[in-house]
Amino acid sequence: MGRLDFKGLNEYALSNIDSVLNYYLPGGKHEGHEYKPLNPRRADNKPGSFSININTGVWADFADSEAKGQDVISLVAYVTNKPQGEAYKELSDLINYDNRVAPKPNESARNTRSNGEEWLHVTPVPPEFVKRCFKKHLKHGLPTFTWEYRDANNQLILKVLRFEKPPVDGKSEKVFAPLALYRNRDTGEIKWRWRMPKANRPLYGLNELAKRPKATVVLAEGEKAADAAKALFPSCVCITWPNGSKSISQADFTPLAKRNVIIWPDNDNAGITCTKELKDLLTSLDAASIRIINLDSLAKTPLSESEGGPLFGEDCIWPDGADAADALELGWGAAHLEALKQCGELFIKEAVTHAPSDIKPNVPQGFKLTDNGVEAFYKSDDKGNEIFKRICAPLELLALTRDAVSSDWGVLVRFKDYDGQEKRLNIPKVAINENGGSEARKKLNAEGLHIEVRSQEKGKLIEYLNYKDIPNRVELVKKLGWHKNAFILPDQTIGETDSPLLYDNENARDCKLKAAGAISDWQREIASYCEGNPLLTLAVSLAFTGPLVSLMGLSENVGFHFYGDSSLGKSTLMNVACSVYGKPSEFKGSWRTTDNALEDTAALHSDMLLALDELNEANPLTIEGIIYMVGNGKGKNRSGPDYAKKKTQRWNLAFLSNGEKTIDDYLGSIGKSVNGGVHMRFLSLPASQHEDEALKKRNGIYTDTHNFINGAALSDHLNKACEKYHGEPFLEFIKQLTSTDLGELIKVHHAEIATYRERVLGNDAGGQAVRAFQKFALVGLAGELASTFGITGWSEGHSIQSAISLFRMWVDIRGGTGNVEEIQLLNHLAKQIKLYGEKHFKRWDRRGAKDPMVIDEHVPSKLEMWGYREQITIRHPDKDATTDHMYYVYKDIFMDVMCKGFDGKRAARLLRDLSVSILRPSELERKKLNTSEALPNAGGKSQQVIKFKASSLFEAVDRMTLSNSDQHDAEHAKSA
Fold first, then answer.
1. First-residue to last-residue Cα distance in the chain
2. Burial, 329: exposed, middle or buried (Cβ in 10 Å; 0-12, 13-18, 19+)?
3. Within a 10 A sphere around the Cβ of 554, how many other Cβ atoms?
4. Helix axes 904-913, 820-836, angle to 10 degrees
5. Phi/psi of residue 538, each to 5°?
6. DSSP 301-363
7. Which of 49, 317, 555, 587 has a 20 to 30 Å separation from 614 between CA atoms?
8. How far is 803 from 956, CA to CA, in rounded Å?
């Protein structure tokens, strides 16, 4: 036993002084600060001389000068006539000191010496005060129902009363009020008060819990639901905690330590959130098991429980907010729930989490494995006693390893290094059996295993490692992320597998996954500030998108780049996204790397988030190649003896980048233009939604600073919180994802994306806009899924609406929903006409019927002539005439000169498809790109030309580049 914490136990006992005194010295009387019971060590007839100060624990019996002490432990030792050590243990067990829940820094404990609380909760309620309990409330009158909270000895602790308020507009309202007994710290006055204790609130049903120590516990939200659950789970103890979902942290759940618990959540967002909090809390208390009612299984119509008949009718909807009490009212009974339990539907299927280290070790014949280490048989002495010699520190042989095709065999070992840190290592058989096993010893030495230096012991170590009869098998996996329906992490596998799996990669420790804090902390300090902030929401949702990319069958990965001036909050966006996976300062990577190194980094983040900080630190010459490599999810193909066994690395992931400039700016600095492929793999968004410069500078990435003085103050809070709370959201997301019907999830997500696409884009958008929207929508749905799992705490629809609003901003910045190359082409052609319509096209006007087209000979001949232009006058009945120009561009000039730097055929095809170029019906049927016209100075012979009106070209540019709202306004103005 370690050192006894006398000071801590005494302080904790003082905070529970009423329970302690009632147990050891029942029936005493309170007089101010003093409690005066009969002295059990003497034959007293009435109290008086024996007194305990309930504020300090000091006690004395004035009739016996030897009977006195300074604390509660000494009091217990005196009353029980036991030594101090035994009294310590007995008192500790009584008040459950070892399993106490430490109060949070901002919570007040019941120890009034430190918190200054004026009124102290008296528990249990002394018998004489039970009769004095209020019968009605001064404001609400008589209660319609009363729930009594009782302790393990069935003594009253407090009451919760329900009142019905007078109906308003035909609707009645319920009011709940707690009632407990309190003692004034200063005056000693004891009276009933309408208030709940601030901390360590008792559970409802502690008396039943104590009577049935082995029964499964059903934890419902609310006293009415707990009572109803008794009829639905008659073999269980059904309990609740006071004041609902927002008061979990103020209740004392320690009585549920090591118990089997079923959680029945209410069917609403608060129910989902509190279920996660309860699960975390019960896990910390080492609950024997935790199961959660699958509310989807209750979407059935219960029928009569008559013998032999069906139990369920048609499927229905489980009502919003419904609980166990509603289940009773709807006709559910114990037989219905038992039927769901037997068919495996009643409880949510929890993810299976395991690691190869769960396997028990094996020891070859001739060796011993002890706390001292591995010992090998050396010889027998004269008396036949076996003599063993130590060959190394403790080293466990867990399993033989091999890959999916039964190759690359090895042995999985476990040991502790010189610092006591546990290590697991796969040692290839090749390293054991070649060169006397020097490579195997080198690997073990490098990882911190102590090996004896004598040559004989070294040989014995290799013999030990080469043991062939290890029955356990572990499959080696070279890629993190999804492996069938399981998810591989560096140190564990989440989900069901046919056999144990081990990620075998020497760079595994470079994947900086780390968990700290509870999900409730992450929700409160980080995720809650995403509400009202689309950019922050998108960043977090993108983090949850990583595991969905391969599931959804995307042909390329999902990448986003946030750009803008320094101090807007770009780094905060990245930190908040990284906090889903680990400590941001360790998890995020940098653009300051080589493409080869980044290939390994990307592979280590497969089916997760890859975050790259500061694009401005990258080499502009390699940026485009890196974007294609990461976006396509495939490393380089290599040849040569050094790469003979190394397969091309592949990955699916979501990746996030930031920098002060756009990708166009960075590549433009070396004279390169950006094509649509790069833009699709690297969707860029400004790191602020504000157009006003002052507002942008003050609030940066935020549209709602949540009562912080400015964006910088909120960023400071979030960055500190991310370093403190991280990692748990990703692990919980994967656990719930692996417990979900993935086939159904994929089907639903594809349908939802199609629905949103039709609603937002319609049918006229270009392929690139559609590709981009699918990625924005998937990110939004990933956030919605995380919310459904109770991870984010966001309201329904928050994530997808944020993604759609940012997609619209992306469209506006990009210049429309057309493909970027097509937009660039049209803009180039329009610019050519604006710049050179007069310079390179000879005017050719209509004059009369016999000679309809004549050349304007009053201007000098064009030195570089691209074709002809005809002026067209359009007369209007209600306004002045307008003019347009018809252009006839020589086909070869159009392809080679006018479209220089672009694909001329693609340009001609685009003009045809947009109905800009003028073609005869027969030419359209033959899918021709050009028409024929008899032009001047050609002897009446037809020439191949691209023919179009300037107005048609400019209108096509507008259609491609205007946002949806601008197009609507333009069409409205045109029709008007």
1. 90
2. exposed
3. 17
4. 90
5. -60, -40
6. EE----TTS-SEEEE--PPTT--HHHHHHTT--HHHHHHHHHTT-SB--PPPEE-GGGSPPB-
7. 555
8. 28
pLDDT digits (tens, 9 = 90+) for 816-825: 665 666 777 8
Residue 822 backbone phi and psi in degrees, to 5: -70, -40
Task: Indicate the DSSP class of residue 235.
Answer: T
Do residues 844 and 857 make contact, with C-beta atoms less than 8 angstroms apart?
Answer: no
CA angle 513, 518, 522 (to 5 degrees): 80
Nearest to 11 by CA among 128, 86, 77, 102: 102
Listed as own residue / partner, the contacts of 370-375 with beta carbons closer than 8 Å and 24 or more positions apart are 370/394, 373/450, 374/461, 374/464
CA distance 867 to 396: 85
The answer on pLDDT for 29 being more than 60 is: yes
What is the rounded CA–CA span in Å between residue 300 and residue 318?
8
The CA–CA distances, whole Å, from 627 to 409, 423, 556 equal 36, 36, 11
The helix-helix angle for 455-465 and 438-446 (nearest 10°) equals 90
Residue 281: enclosing H or E segment and its boundaries?
helix 269-284
Torsion angle in degrees (nearest 10) through CA of 680, 681, 682, 685:
40
* Beta bridge partners of residue 165, listed in sequence order: 173
Instruction: Identify the H or E element spanning 885.
Output: strand 882-890
439 to each of 334, 374, 413, 436, 511, how far by Cα in Å?
Answer: 63, 19, 15, 8, 25
Q: Which of 776, 775, 790 is nearest to 729 (CA)?
A: 790
Between helix 72-80 and helix 6-15 the angle, nearest 10°, is 90
DSSP string, 618-664: S-HHHHHHHHHHHHHTB-----SGGGSS-PPPB---EEEEEESS-HH
Query: What's the confidence (pLDDT) of residue 113?
Result: 41
Q: For the residues 421-425, what does the mean pLDDT come to? A: 87
Q: Which residue shows structure tokens 């509310």?
A: 295
**Strand locations in 796-881, DSSP E?**
841-846, 853-855, 867-874
User: In angstroms, rounded to a whole number, what is the distance separating the alpha carbons of residues 264 and 258?
Assistant: 19
620 closest CA partner among 656, 590, 591: 591
User: Which phi and psi angles does 245 have, rounded to 5°?
Assistant: -65, -25
Q: What is the largest CA-CA distance in the chain?
A: 141
Cα(109)–Cα(129) distance, integer angstroms: 24
Q: 475, 409 in Cβ contact below 8 A?
A: no
Residue 110 vs residues 116, 153, 388, 478: alpha-carbon distances, Å: 9, 21, 59, 54
Work out the average pLDDT over 121-130: 88
- Indicate the angle between helix axes 534-545 and 798-814, nearest 10 degrees: 100
Q: In what order do the strands lie in the sheet with 367-370?
A: 367-370, 373-380, 386-392
The answer to whether 557 touches 633, Cβ cutoff 8 Å, is: yes
Per-residue pLDDT for 976 more than 80?
no
Shortest CA distance to 503 belongs to which of 474, 472, 470, 545? 474
pLDDT at 768: 81
Contact 533, 701 (CB under 8 A): yes
Query: pLDDT band at 95, cuts 50/70/90?
Result: confident
> Is the CB of residue 398 less than 8 Å from the CB of residue 359?
yes
Measured distance CA(444)–CA(427) in Å, rounded: 9
Question: φ and ψ at 577, to 5 degrees?
Answer: -65, -45
On whether the CB atoms of residues 734 and 496 are closer than 8 A, the answer is no
Nearest-angstrom CA–CA distance, 550 and 531: 28
Q: Rounded CA gap, 892 and 682, in Å? A: 36
Q: Roughly what angle, to the nearest 10 degrees, separates helices 820-836 and 950-961?
A: 150
